[in-house]
Amino acid sequence: MDGTTPRHVAIIMDGNGRWAKARGLPRVEGHKAGAETVRRAMRAAKKFGVRYLTLYAFSVENWSRPPAEVRALMRLLRFTLRRTEKEFHENKVRLRVMGRRSDLPASLDKVLSDMEAATARYDEGQLILCLSYGGRTEIAAAARSLAEDAAAGRLDPATVDEAALASRLYLPDVPDPDLIVRTSGEERLSNFLLWQAAYAEFHFTPVAWPDFGEADFKAALDAYAKRQRRFGGL
Ligand code: IPE
Ligand code: IPE
Ligand code: MG
Questions:
Q1: Sign of torsion over alpha carbons 151, 155, 161, 164
Q2: For a surface tag, which of 119, 120, 135, 232 has the fewest beta carbons within 10 Å of its beta carbon?
């Protein structure tokens, strides 16, 4: 890996529904095709030397979708994880989850917990799945946890600074994303990594997630390599 390869790429996997609609298929077919793309993206991350790959799979707001679509997505997630498990072991990649865990169906939560435990010691890379994730939810939970400690006398409020808040986020040890990619033409964060995105570079592509291939991943990395990051300095 050279200095121009992002250490951490986070992707807003968008456009499954529109991809399906354009083909006269039900939305869930788009999600199925999108699940295949997840495996492709994992392989691309490994090939190009990206150590952390975060995927926005389901937002807290996505619970407002029709129950049948939500159920299909949860089933598909479980199925895709099982089918991909071998690759985590072969590539020594650690699976991690961020989001409001208690919202997830028990059957999915179990697969996630098992795979997190089985891959916990791998250090060739991390695949971070955002499930029932909301940036505001995450920050509010961090603030609540600080407030609880302060109320219990375990924490001096005067010591609460950026590092203190960051330490209460879901995965405090994971470095901030260097590059955030969103597929399918939308150019918004949709409540993704609000805190962590402070100095991320952005890459938007019109390609729908089910069509996002290795060449599109490479194009995002090439665009990133041309950016000049300044972090407020000169
Ligand atoms: C992304 O595709 C997957 C999820 C948000 C779960 P969408 O389902 O949002 O697809 P569009 O945006 O409606 O095309
Ligand atoms: C963002 O996509 C969430 C995920 C990709 C999981 P949405 O499709 O839910 O976002 P909006 O509604 O277009 O902003
Ligand atoms: Mg969408």
A1: negative
A2: 232
d(CA 32, CA 36): 7
For residue 221, give the amino acid letter: L
Residue 108 Cβ inside 6 Å of ligand 2? The answer reads no
CB 58 within 8 A of CB 78: no
CB contact at 8 A, 225 and 49: no
What ligand 2 atom has the least distance to the C-alpha of 12?
A: 5
Torsion of CA 159, 163, 168, 171, to 10 degrees: -170
CATH number for the 8-225 domain, one of 1.10.3720.10, 3.40.1180.10, 2.60.220.30, 3.40.50.720?
3.40.1180.10
Would you kindly state where each structural domain of the chain is located, as residue ranges? 8-225
Model confidence pLDDT, tens digit, residues 86-96: 999 999 999 99
pLDDT, position 1: 46
Give nearest CA residue, ligand 1 atom 1.
14
